[in-house]
Specification:
The protein has one domain (about 5-315): Farnesyl Diphosphate Synthase, CATH 1.10.600. The N and C termini lie far apart (about 50 Å). The chain is globular. It has 16 helices and no strands. The longest helix has 28 residues, at about 190-220. By secondary structure, the chain is mainly alpha-helical.
Length: about 325
């Protein structure tokens, strides 16, 4: 089994769960349902990480199917968050498809907040479990927003690897920790295991953010440089640089928002072999941390290897050195 097999098997059920949540908005909400449906069609998630809650539940119980509602929450949450992120980067109008920017904003609020509650409330589970799921949803939003704000307020002049990971654990780790903890809570395991699953989600989120950062460079989009985002790779370069080279890097950072030449020069510096070695070592460490938690958790051996596949996917080293070490 691969995680893609699992996705193909359960994605129709996840789509049906989302459709049912939309229908529960009622006949008087036709404009809302239409806007959210269009946003969902436009903001298709590139990677099927909605398998994560299926895997968590299966590892705990042997059955992935009962976690389909949590997978639906994952899709709804990330549809909202990805649009809000585009909006913060000034791309909201271009990224909302046939919705205008304001329509897409309203749809994203409903998608990320109202509809997940519409999924959770009808679940035939004990009241404490339903309360736990709702609490995870609320806390996930708070942790993710905190991380996003730290990221948006970041100053490249004071950036360190530690400060960037603090932001990553929030803005990406928070929602993954939310979704893995929700799946664990739904499976009925004790609080200690829920906490471990949440921590696994935090670490997985860091790995996935590092993977996403690399994709941005490999694809040639370089949106992070254009948006002035302080990535972990940039923090590695700043920490490794001499005072003179550090000033050059910071100057290129400032100019990258409006200059393709500056982005090209900065990318070359970021891909220096010494910087990539540090980057690769740190990715391996986060992967090992995720493995360590999975080893502590144990569980169904039919599904643990599949989750390790997903960890391995997120821990890939996509970047190759082409630059020269900063001097």
């Amino acid at each position: 089994m691969s995680y893609l097999d699992l996705h193909r098997k359960f994605s129709p059920a996840v789509d049906a769960e989302i459709e049912a949540a939309l229908e529960r908005l009622g006949p008087s909400s036709s404009a809302v349902k239409d806007a959210v449906a269009r946003l969902l069609r436009h903001q298709k998630l590139k990677h099927p990480l909605s398998v994560l809650p299926l895997l968590v539940h299966a590892i705990e119980t042997g059955a992935p199917g009962p976690a389909v509602p949590v997978s639906a929450v994952h899709v709804l949450w990330w549809t909202s968050a990805c649009y809000l992120d585009d909006l913060a980067d000034g791309q909201g109008a271009a990224m909302s498809g046939d919705l205008d920017k304001n329509e897409a904003l309203l749809a994203s609020i409903v998608s990320g907040n109202v509809l997940p509650i519409q999924v959770i409330q009808p679940l035939q589970v004990p009241a404490p479990v339903r309360s736990a799921l709702t609490a995870e949803l609320m806390n996930g939003w708070i942790v993710a927003t905190e991380g996003q704000l730290i990221d948006m307020r970041g100053d490249s002049g004071s950036a360190t690897r530690k400060s960037v990971i603090t932001a990553y654990r929030g803005k990406s780790g928070g929602p993954f920790g939310m979704i893995t903890a929700m799946a664990a809570a739904l499976s009925g395991v004790p609080r200690e295991r829920i906490d471990l699953w949440r921590e696994f989600g935090y670490i997985f989120g860091v790995l996935w953010q590092l993977f996403n950062d690399q994709e941005d460079i490999v694809s040639g989009r370089n949106e992070d440089l254009m948006n002035g985002t302080i990535t972990y790779l940039l923090a590695c370069a700043i920490e490794e640089a001499s005072p003179q080279s550090r000033e050059r890097i910071l100057g290129l950072c400032a100019n990258s928002k409006n200059s393709g030449q500056a982005r090209s020069e900065l990318t070359e510096l970021l891909l220096a072999p010494a910087i990539l070695r540090q980057y690769h070592e740190d990715i391996d460490k986060f992967r090992d941390d995720a493995y360590c938690i999975l080893g502590e958790l144990g569980g169904d051996e039919n599904y643990l290897p599949v989750l390790r596949q997903v960890v391995d996917l997120s821990a890939q080293m996509l970047l190759q050195g082409t630059g020269e070490a900063p001097r």
